[in-house]
Amino acid sequence: MPPQDPGPVLAVGARRAERKRPAAKAAVNLPFDVVESKFYVPVLRPGVVSRTALVNRLRVTTAYPVVAVTAPAGYGKTTLLAQWAARDKRAFAWVSIDERDDDPVVLLRHLAAAIHQVEALDARVLNALRSPGKSMWAAAIPRLGSALASPERPLVLVLDDAHWLPSRDSLGAVSALVDHMPQGSLLVLAGRVQPRLRIAALRTSGLLLELGVDELALSGREAR
Length: 224
Prior knowledge:
five-stranded parallel sheet, single chain, disordered N terminus
């Protein structure tokens, strides 16, 4: 279980939207079951504070394959990402993570389904996840990574509430996909605690963009 967070720090514009819109068409023709409601980008409610400066910064981000958005509840992580998705030309594949995804098979199926809605995956990739068993690391992950590395257009793969992925196997599956992110595409990990993914190595190599409490705090103008 992730640690308990303090109460909301910035309530304006920081609450999760009550209604959602699909990131793309409904998941179809999948050889395994998924929870389709997990692939929805939250709808922005009227009156939320526009995070224009941060959104513009993320829109032009192409040099970093990984973006980590980390802050306690109430800082508007999901709202920021939803505003970004609404304004970026790149396709967004969105997965709302929960405790059920802390299983590499379940996680990879949801990631594949989210990507499949944006960029149709080869049947071999999907079939490798139907009954992965011991072959997951040898077949499923390499095939999904290869498909991720050669999309027809850049995409942004968002794992919202990624703090629900504490296990080594789930983090290993995500880490394996990092190496396959093509130029212009991004893997975004948003959560209450920093993901345990080779953070130091990614930071040292200049492959990680980090947004934390300081960046997510409202400016004076935004607060007004």
